[in-house]
Amino acid sequence: MSQPTQQEEFLAEHARSRQPGSSDEPEAKGLSQGQIVRKRFLGHTGALVGLFIFAVIFLLAFTSVGWAGIPGWWKYDHLDVSPLVNDGVPTASLWPPAWGEHPFGQDRIGRDLFAMTMRGAQQSIIIMLLIGTIAGLLGTVVGGLSGYFRGWVEAVLMRITDVIIIIPVLLLAAVVAQSVNRRDQGGWFSGFAASNGILILGIFLGLVSWVGLARLMRGEFLTLREREFVDAARISGASNARIIFKHILPNAIGVLIVNVTLTMSAAILLETALSYLGVGVKSPDTSLGLLISQNQEAFSTRPWLFWFPGIFIVLICLSINFIGDGLRDAFDPRQKKFNAKKAKDTQLSGEAAKKPAPAADGSAGD
Amino acid sequence: MVTYIVRRLITAALILLGASFLVYLLTASSGDPLEEFRASSAPNKQQLMDSRSQLLDLDTPAPLRYFKWLSGAARCLVPFAGSCDLGKNIAGQPITEALGFALVQTLTLVTGATILAILIGIALGIITALRQYSALDYGVTFMAFLFFSLPIFWVAVLLKEYGAIGFNDFLRNPEIPLPVALGIGAVAGLIVAVAVGGAARRRLVSGGIVFVAVSLILVYFSLVQWFRNPGLGPVVIAIAGVGLAFAVTLLVAGLKNRKALQASLIVVALGVVAYFAVQPLLNQATAIMIVLLGIATIGVGVGTGYLMGGYDRGQSMRAAGITAFLVGGLILMDRFMQAWPSYFSNSRVRGRPIATIGAGTPNIQGDFWILTLDTFTHLILPTMALILVSLASYTRFTRSSMLEIMNMDYIRTARAKGLSERSVVMGHAFRNALIPIATIVAFDIGALIGGAVITETVFSVRGMGFLFLDGIVHTDPNPVMGVFVCVAVTAMVFNLIADLAYSALDPRVRIKA
């Protein structure tokens, strides 16, 4: 029954998806790779919305309760206890738009949930950035070295990768959590760890999340080093460092950036999950996962304690995922981003006289 | 080939040795197993500490303890000797025993969820790839990103609140108010209108039909208290069976293959007759009997297809076999629904069937149907949570794989020689798109027995993940090592299988020996 229409639609889709390919080339003419990528990224609505939401959350989280000793504009912080207003029910309302005393409500002992959520979002973002940076750097170095030099360098580095990839992250997180908790046993490390639990956790998780990236970069380097332009560079006397940094890395940067972004979105969930299991961020400090873990029992009486941190996790993660998707589309030269509106415009202006576009049905609307 | 496998296995063994040494040291150094006694004020504190030190052999330094553990674990490699020794946990239970129990729990939890997630994910991926850039595609893509971003513990708590507590409250008085029925109908109609594609008129008609049908069914359910006394009955099975016969034939053989369609319809008729025939038999059902009946059902279907023949006998057999299996599933579902009222009023269940924790109601008594229903009601929430979080990757992966294949030259050739869209999609594109998916599935099956640590924690299932986490919390290396070795070995074996399967399925990929 649905056969013919589906077929028509599919064929039409195909006919159209070929068009931008040809119309893309003059668009890209005379532009550098960076310019093309920027142009494509800015044409990706989902990525722009994601970027905007992430920027808003970032600013809100870091300015409201302050960071690293700098005071924020919000009157409470995540530890302040104040008398319960209206039994802790959120005071924010959409209409009439009002902020109120405790916009996200309060927990049982009167701590302000807005401050706690903002603090948690800060922690999650810091850990995410740490993991992304460390995993990106380590993964590139290990993957690049083993892919470029091959031989024993590759054998050693890849076996180390194999070992690390099967060690459960949960175990490492537990070890970190334990060492952070051992405040009593002197030593500079435990002292530092006790006051900077987040940094330690982020660094350690970064030290274990690079393995997937390393394998990927190795694959990228393996294919790129066989390409003609690398041979040409080598013949003209370029050093290894020059080949790596000037010829291979710029071509691998797309894969790298996209996957660092995706690693970061996974990192948010990893951190919240670890905190939820009790081996991540520990109280008195707070994080989004810890807030949910502490408040899940109170769901029937104080549901807002559960909703707001969860929504922030989903929002941060979702926006990072969309940014990653936009970057992937922007960096992948094979992927011809199809713009329904543009295709319709060209069709209308170009061959409006010939025949109505076969694909001008509602399904192409964006 | 053999050299390649042997080399891979040796490398894997070495990696396993290195990693297990690291894991042992990390677990042993992650905390102090005597901590709970140090803080206690029990009079026999010293004695307790001594006995635990002896149990965990704490006087030996951790690296040496690893080699002691290794000598015990190495005996597991001797087949059928029964001398496998993975040590004991902090409560004195042998790890091999604990692992066996946990493995069963984990597999019952994750197997169904994984299979369902794979099936739904692949189906969604194919549909979205065929309707690239449609409203459906954008909708599913957005849902996939949303599911990618959902923390499973958050979903689990929501499911507990609305899926279990809310649904149980609803069952107390299963009446659906008219506005709610209309609302659900409208949502269903909207989804269908988006999903069918095609011209606006076609969408409106399909959406409208679904809206009316769903609303009417819900009103009917509410009037007869269907959720209290559910059941399908032979009429519904017959109608649904005919629908399934058409759908399966459409996918497997195309409606033009009349013989295949006839074979499927005959199978449905046989199924309705069998519905009455097997009822007395089903009253004394056991698990083995159900499996045997299932095999017999498929056999009857394939046989009918063979007898009907047609220009492509294989297609008829496949269509009839799949239809038979699905109709058999309907009959089974009906029987479960018949058992529902007695399960519902069971003294241990007390009218709150959907459970939020555990893997079964303690001390429940009843026949096969009651006990299986009990397992189902305990599995449904964790299964839903697991499906939600793992669905997205299958959908996205299938979609991109399918899109890539649809741009291949041989697909254009297939179209050019005049094949129907069905055989192009199902025969040429889908099978080739499955190759990369097969490797992903192999990886995931390898990771299955690691269990879902968070899901198990939230739903209090004492599976592998629980064992692992418990070992970490108590600084007890033996259970951690047991779980780790199981998980790592399966993961490595399935990685190897995935690589071999890839080269077997895709002749362009050759293994370098």
What brief labels describe this structure?
heterodimer, A: 366 residues, mainly alpha, 14 helices, 69% helix, elongated, disordered N terminus, disordered C terminus, B: 513 residues, 19 helices, 76% helix
Describe the structure.
The complex is a heterodimer of chains A (366) and B (513). The two termini of chain A are 26 Å apart. Chain A is elongated. In chain A, 40% of the residues are buried. Chain A is mostly helical and 366 residues long. Chain A is built from 14 helices and no strands. The longest helix of chain A has 38 residues. With 513 residues, chain B is mostly helical. Chain B has 19 helices and no strands. The termini of chain B are close together. At the A-B interface, helix 1, helix 5, helix 6, helix 11 and helix 12 of A face helix 1, helix 6, helix 7, helix 9 and helix 17 of B.
C-alpha-based Rg of chain B, rounded: 27 Å
- What is the number of strand segments of chain A? 0
**Average pLDDT, all residues of chain A:** 73
Question: How much is the radius of gyration of chain A in Å?
Answer: 26 Å
Largest interface by Cβ-Cβ < 8 Å: A-B, 53 and 58 residues
The shape of chain B, in one word, is globular
Distance between the termini of chain B: 6 Å
- Please provide the ordered H/E string of secondary-structure elements of chain A: HHHHHHHHHHHHHH
Strand content of chain A: under 5%
Distance between the termini of chain A: 26 Å
Amount of helix of chain B: over 70%
Structural class of chain A: mainly alpha
Estimate percent helicity of chain A: 55-70%
Low-pLDDT stretches of chain B are none
